[in-house]
Amino acid sequence: MCDKTMSIDRMEKRCKRLWRAVLEQAFKDARWDVTARAWFRSKDQETGSFLWICALLDLSPESMRRLLANKREHERKPFPMVIDYSTDGRLYRDFIKDIGAGGVFIETHMPFSVGDEVSLSFPLPRYQKYIKIAGEVVRIAAQGIGVKFKVANQDQEVTVESLSETI
What we know:
By secondary structure, the protein is of the alpha+beta class. The chain contains 6 helices and 6 strands. A hairpin with a 2-residue loop joins strand 1 and strand 2 (about 90-100). Helix 1 (about 10-30) crosses helix 3 (about 50-55).
């Protein structure tokens, strides 16, 4: 990228494209990574910091932070319900805090890692039946884990898509 034959203008455009990609990845990571969310709140102005990238790309840090705060792919609703789930042959029973078409937040103090595969089972009160679905841990927090649903068939897809209407 630092080829002497490359014009300053071309280098600047490539550099900005690279830092824009860093910012886009940070937005993705901030959905589940506490460190990424802290990076957005930082007041650091060193090279590579959130504020430095915003200045380089002529973006408003406040606007970017608001965008991050409002970024949720699916609406979540409170859903205090018992959930049975398993991973690596171990069974757990905890409570769902909230739920949406994309997944659930489970209140737990058990140690999990981002990327852990889990099998979930919980009741849908209006239908008097249980939903059983696979998921992946995508967020770790002090009060629990965020699990993204992994839809396996059309029936699950319809059920998951209608969750916000049925709760």
